[in-house]
Design brief:
By secondary structure, the protein is α+β, with helices and mostly antiparallel strands. The chain has 2 domains: about 40 residues, Arc Repressor Mutant, subunit A; about 80 residues, 2-Layer Sandwich (Alpha-Beta Plaits). It is built from 5 helices and 4 strands. Strand 2 and strand 3 form a beta hairpin.
Length: about 150
């Protein structure tokens, strides 16, 4: 699928909002909330999946119960000759990196990290810097999250 925008109506958007809120909703529940039959809701859902509007479903996880009690964001700055397409490769193979964003301006990238302790955070930052292309980092530790 290309990056072209897909035409969505209010019913499609409501369906998406319902699934963002709870990806395990039944078709019957979705259909009742958007005013369609279950088969009509299923056709819309399949179209949203086929066109790439809905790219998958995921579970929300309590990271503290998995032992990853520290959440942080690390800003990364790269040397001026680093190609934008090469920036994200510094996070390859690091499962502690939950998401990696290449940005315009300063910083060049932002890494969302989840780690067990400060020692692991230090090791992950060192690994992000290992390429030699990273000229500087700044890490912000999360104190509280409201979703």
């Amino acid at each position: 699928m290309n990056d072209e925008s897909i035409a969505l109506d209010a019913v499609d958007r409501k369906m998406i909002d319902l699934l963002i809120e709870d990806g395990r909703r039944t078709l019957a529940d979705i259909a009742s909330k958007i005013g369609l039959s279950a088969p009509a809701a299923k056709r819309r859902l399949e179209r949203l999946e086929t066109t790439g509007v809905i790219t998958g479903y995921t579970a929300k996880v309590d990271h503290a119960k998995l032992g990853r009690t520290i959440e942080a964001f690390t800003e990364l700055r790269f040397g001026g000759r680093t190609k934008v397409g090469d920036i994200a490769s510094v996070a390859d193979g690091l499962p502690q990196v939950q998401a990696f964003y290449t940005t315009a301006g300063d910083p060049d990238a932002l890494a969302h990290l989840r780690v067990r302790d400060v020692g692991e955070l230090t090791r992950v930052i060192d690994l992000l810097r290992r390429s030699g292309r990273v000229t500087g980092t700044k890490t912000l530790m999360v104190l509280d999250t409201r979703e």
